[in-house]
Write a structure and sequence with these properties.
By secondary structure, the protein is an alpha/beta fold. It has 8 helices and 8 strands, in the order H-E-E-E-H-E-H-E-H-E-H-E-H-E-H-H.
């Protein structure tokens, strides 16, 4: 099945964090806090996905207050941190939202994402993912993690679903839209 056909079925998008929503670097501050850098275009893409009726979730093995704050700011539906078994969490999220696994898009970048990617209908990765993940993906973004790859994937999904033009038109109206990105 072509990647466009797979993207057309997506109702839930799940993101890994480190290496996908961020560039994968973790900065440790002087008092031990982990700092992460997020891309605003990915944020606007997530807001557009919500506007188009898609559900979103994060599954990450790490735990971070920064991730919790960013996901709250973006109104991401489910934030699952400290996940040891990403497949188990993925299956639970799909069931919670009454969504078949074939209707799930998952974006990962490293070996710990392979099992989750194998379970979903639309497995995606970023340009700087490890080779094994690129080989397992239905779609490889042209952008690196933390540099707009999530936005690129969301745009692809919304375009093949026929929703992108309406999103652009909505943002083109006078007065704009109040969107946290």
């Amino acid at each position: 099945m072509k990647s466009e056909d797979r993207a057309r079925q997506v109702r839930l998008l799940i993101f890994d964090v480190d290496g996908v929503l961020t560039g994968g670097q973790i900065f440790i501050g002087p008092s031990g806090e982990a700092l992460k850098v997020f891309h605003v275009r990915d944020g606007l893409g997530i807001a557009a996905a919500h506007r188009a009726g898609l559900k979103t979730a994060v599954i990450t093995g790490r735990e971070s207050e920064m991730v919790q704050r960013r996901c709250a700011e973006l109104a991401i539906d489910d934030v699952c941190q400290g996940a040891r078994d990403k497949v188990k969490v993925l299956v639970e999220l799909a069931a919670k939202h009454n969504i078949m696994l074939s209707e799930v898009g998952y974006i990962g970048d490293d070996l710990n994402d392979l099992a989750a990617m194998a379970k979903v209908g639309f497995a995606c990765t970023v340009a700087d993912a490890v080779p094994e993940v690129k080989a397992a993906a239905h779609y490889v973004a042209s952008r690196e993690g933390g540099c707009g790859a999530v936005r690129e994937i969301i745009e692809l999904v919304l375009k093949v679903q026929g929703k992108w033009d309406l999103i652009v038109e909505t943002y083109s109206r006078p007065g704009g839209i109040d969107t946290k990105q």
